[in-house]
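Figure 3 (text version): structure tokens given as input.
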């Protein structure tokens, strides 16, 4: 029998072993994970800290023991692989134990990116990505002794932190080196509307300014923004992004921001695959490989890798940047590259409950932002993906009716006609 190793066990790793077993693979599967928890969802950590979901909801696939039994896995929890001998086809753990493999999946995910400025390792500085991060921050907030906080990073995670802190009566500063909120996804007018709502909710915004150092103060912490400005607070939460965990690639696999893979999720060495937040796949809009760290991508990439490791033929064609999040009773949806330039179209319905901003590049829609219209985001995303794959992109009658009922005017829908 062949031996299969899986390094890392998050969303991608789970869907890979599931796909292997469903494809009829009976080979031994060894899973190595540096933590003791079941696969968890980083995007649910803020919901747990806010008290909106119970602890077990952080691990949506069930307990590690249940998953291990269901898929007949040998799980090495709390034990990670430190080196891969690609020529000898063996994974070496930190204690020197070597595990030979016939097929290997790298599903090591990503880690919170913590800038190395002075004070970033102080006790009252927090990150927000893992289960341990969520437990630590919730315990601190449950003490009832947090009056002020600085959230560094105006990202999807940052906005959820600002929301939960404000709901607890904590004066919150949301800061980012970028000039506006959601710098990787929001268009200018959409960003301004979101920022106005946040200020109305009492969130203090600081854009174009990043933390340069953190010092301890008799009353807590001081976040310094350059030499002449600072904010006093009790805690600081860093959510400035994530970095792909690519150390196991060594010097044998191609690494840019992540491990580069092809459509089969092969990492460039026979028998070696990568999936999830540690890898790069094709961005359908740019045509280049990119880390697009979305849960749905990790699931599909893991499934594709698992099927191929089981001897099937499966492909992941790629994806586009796509975000949807709910905060302060509003919803923000972004599809496509917000760096694209061209003609900009905006509209707002009469009662102000729907706002759409879109950029058209050479007559083709390049980026779409929507506020409070999430029920039709799937239609637009499907339209984007089908167009970029060269497939039929005609909006069906039912889809057009759904768009109109959601407040999207006919004249905007007609702008898509040249692409049909």
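Below: residues designed for each position.
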């Amino acid at each position: 029998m062949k031996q299969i190793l899986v390094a890392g066990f998050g969303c991608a790793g789970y869907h890979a072993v599931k796909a292997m077993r469903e494809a009829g693979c009976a080979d031994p599967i060894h899973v190595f994970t540096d933590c003791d928890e079941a696969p968890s969802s980083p995007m649910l950590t803020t919901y747990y800290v806010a008290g909106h979901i119970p602890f077990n909801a952080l691990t949506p696939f069930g307990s590690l023991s249940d998953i291990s039994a269901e898929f007949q896995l040998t799980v090495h929890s709390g034990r990670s692989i430190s080196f891969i001998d690609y020529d000898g086809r063996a994974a070496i753990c930190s204690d020197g134990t070597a595990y030979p493999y016939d097929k290997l999946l790298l599903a090591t995910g990503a880690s919170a990116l913590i800038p190395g400025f002075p004070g970033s390792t102080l006790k009252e500085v927090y990150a927000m990505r893992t289960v341990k991060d969520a437990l630590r921050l919730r315990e601190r907030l449950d003490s009832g002794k947090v009056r002020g906080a600085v959230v560094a990073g105006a990202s999807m995670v940052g906005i959820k932190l600002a929301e939960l802190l404000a709901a607890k009566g904590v004066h919150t500063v949301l800061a980012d080196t970028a000039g506006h909120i959601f710098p990787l996804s929001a268009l200018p007018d959409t960003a301004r509307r979101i920022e106005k709502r946040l200020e109305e909710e009492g969130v203090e915004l600081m854009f174009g300014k990043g933390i340069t150092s953190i010092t301890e103060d008799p009353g807590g912490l001081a976040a310094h923004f350059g030499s002449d400005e600072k904010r006093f607070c009790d805690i600081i939460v860093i959510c400035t992004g994530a970095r792909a965990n690519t150390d196991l690639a060594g010097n044998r696999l191609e690494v840019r921001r992540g491990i580069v893979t092809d459509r089969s999720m092969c990492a460039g060495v026979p028998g070696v695959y990568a999936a999830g937040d540690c890898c790069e796949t094709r961005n359908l809009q740019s045509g280049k490989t990119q880390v697009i760290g979305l849960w749905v991508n990790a699931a599909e990439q893991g499934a594709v890798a698992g099927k191929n490791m089981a001897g099937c033929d499966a492909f992941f064609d790629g994806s586009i940047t796509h975000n949807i999040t709910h905060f302060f009773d509003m919803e923000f949806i972004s599809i496509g590259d917000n760096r694209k330039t061209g003609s900009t179209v905006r509209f707002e319905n009469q009662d102000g409950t729907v706002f759409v901003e879109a950029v058209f590049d050479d007559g083709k829609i390049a980026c779409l932002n929507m506020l409070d219209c999430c029920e039709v985001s799937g239609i637009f995303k499907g339209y984007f993906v089908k167009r970029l794959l060269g497939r039929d992109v005609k909006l069906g009658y039912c889809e057009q009716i759904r768009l109109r009922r959601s407040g999207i005017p006919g004249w905007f829908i007609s702008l898509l006609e040249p692409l049909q």
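The two ends are 51 Å apart (CA to CA).
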